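Exercise 3.2. Students should predict the tertiary structure of the chain below and write it as structure tokens, then compare their answer with the key that follows.

Predict this chain's 3D structure.
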Amino acid sequence: GVDPAGGSTGGASVSVVATPSTPAVIELEREGQRTLVEQRTTVMLQRIPATLSADDVRRQLDELGFRDRVDAVHVPMNRGSSLSMRYAFANFLSPEDAANCISACTGKPFGRPDDEGLVCNAVYARFQGRDLVLQEVAKAA
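Answer key:
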């Protein structure tokens, strides 16, 4: 078989399952066994310090082992303030990196020590992909 990206699936049939809760999950069926393969690459980092910039988020992700694995970061800012809304979006180069980020960040402080004792919650973002993250950056500028 051929996968949607044009590669070989080694004889497996491929179908794309898209629902609001699991966008772009690819279902592989090989020898009667079905496997869902996560395709989401954009992570929302919730409950992060309001003082973090996009560069700070990138640096923290680099320190967590994701150097050169992130192609877009957006930190929504409060209007009329230099403080963020305490969340950020990061788009990873692979679904595996996104899943590893969720595991690495959830339940731990993110970024520089914060006197509010925030603990990060990392989840898949509702919108997915580098281009959509960059559109959000452009809208905020």
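Discussion points: The first strand starts at residue 13 and ends at 17. Confidence is low (pLDDT under 50) at residues 1-9, 12-23.
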